[in-house]
Amino acid sequence: MSKLETNTIDTISGSTNLTLGGTNATDITIPVGVTITNNGTQSGFGGTMTPAFQANLSSNQSVTNNTYTKIQCNTEIFDTNSAYDNSTNYRFTVPSGEAGRYFIYGNIGIYGNTTTDVKNAYLSIYKNGTLVHENRNDIGSTPYETQIPITIASILDLSVSDYVELYGIVNTNSGSNGLFLGDSTSNKTFFGAYKIIE
Q1: Does an H or E element contain 112, and which?
Q2: Is the dihedral of CA 128, 92, 95, 46 positive or negative?
Q3: How does residue 140 score in pLDDT terms, banded at 50, 70 and 90?
Q4: Strand residues in 14-99 grouped as ranges (E)
Q5: Amino acid 20: pLDDT
Q6: Fewer CB within 10 A of the terminal residue: the chain, N end or C end?
Q7: What is the mean pLDDT of the chain?
């Protein structure tokens, strides 16, 4: 093995690309304690936090009282790998080659169909059809509130083809049905995820 000691490596006149390594090189090793300083633009370093998606509920969704109901977030804000189904199953499925840890989050706005009717609400993350995390907002004794928000977030280890979904419950004082609140401007109800760089 030979050793090259120099202070500057540059291209020859008239050339703009500098290549380190060639047909025989598979790795370039940076020793411990060395800092790479970037004073220009870069690509291909550090990775990206994808796959990633976020989808909103575009209009109110009716909910049977005290019943787990899948939240139908149907308007995609972004979906980097086309991995979220916003029209049929309302689920994110891990694409091929993208197993890893994912940050999953969601929020719902809740409303009771009758005046001052919401008693409590649940928001749940499901993995492969099974509840794995849940958050509950309990209003308590009267007076009951007409609207409450509830948020959930978690980190999950996901394999290829694993899928995650968002479910919620509205429990009303009167036993009447409720609503997940959604519209095109305020985004009261949404669901999202992204892969964590490790």
Answers
A1: strand 100-112
A2: negative
A3: low
A4: 52-56, 61-63, 69-70, 75-79, 92-93
A5: 73
A6: N
A7: 86
Backbone dihedral region for residue 77 (phi beyond 0: left; psi -120 to 50: alpha; all else: beta)? alpha
Q: Where are the domains of the chain?
A: 55-195
Q: Return the closest-CA partner of residue 156 out of 179, 190, 176, 133.
A: 133
21, amino acid identity: G
Task: Return the CATH number of 55-195, one of 2.60.120.40, 2.40.50.100, 3.30.830.10, 1.20.120.530.
Answer: 2.60.120.40
Residue 141: pLDDT over 60:
no
Q: Can you tell me the distance from the alpha carbon of 129 to that of 152, in angstroms, rounded to the nearest whole number?
A: 17
* pLDDT tens per residue across span 85-136: 999 999 999 999 999 999 999 999 888 766 667 888 899 999 999 999 999 8
